[in-house]
Amino acid sequence: MNTMPEGNMAPRQGWWGRNWKWVVPVGCLTPVLMCGCFGALGLYFISSAIKSSDAYQQAVALVSENPEVQEVLGTPIEFGFPRGSVNTDSGEGRASLNIPVEGPKASGTLRVEALSVGGTWTFERLEVEVPGREPIPLMEPPMDDELPPGLEALPDEEAPPMDLGEEPLPPEEERLPPPDEETPGKRGSEIDL
């Protein structure tokens, strides 16, 4: 005789049979989430390295202090995620950056091109581009005493013409022989056929 009720006699499902509905999504999403986390961590470290560079910090300081940029963007000015590169090696390097800038009135992009020689950054391009208006330059043109060695500033007034001691050329009819006469002593470039 069977003393157990029939409902308890059904075979019990295995672990996979009971849990597959949550194992499959978790198993697929875990690698995707891990890749996303590693990517975000990589971007954070790259952004931190760019933001800690002298080129970035000097450019941001110049933008923050510029009255024309403050007037156009408003204050406070916030800086977004920098895009570009900063390469340095033994005090020499190159920076090429595009940095989003935003204020209460407008937003734009800070464009930076700089060279480092001996640990000192020199900006080749430093301007804020705001849609709908001319770029705002943040660099002053070099003064006469700041020109690189070997270059001289152009004079403000026109120099007088130089006298080379040459006589003026005779009128054209005096330079050419008449067409009917033979020219004595042909030159080497002339060919007689």
From TrEMBL:
Organism annotation: Stigmatella aurantiaca
InterPro entries: Coa1
UniProt-annotated stretches for the region Disordered: 134-193
UniProt name for this protein: Cytochrome oxidase complex assembly protein 1
Keyword annotations of the record: Membrane, Transmembrane, Transmembrane helix
Highest taxon above the source species: Bacteria
This protein's record includes keyword RNA-binding: no
Biased segments, Basic and acidic residues type: 172-193
Annotated Acidic residues bias: 154-171
Annotated TM spans: 20-46
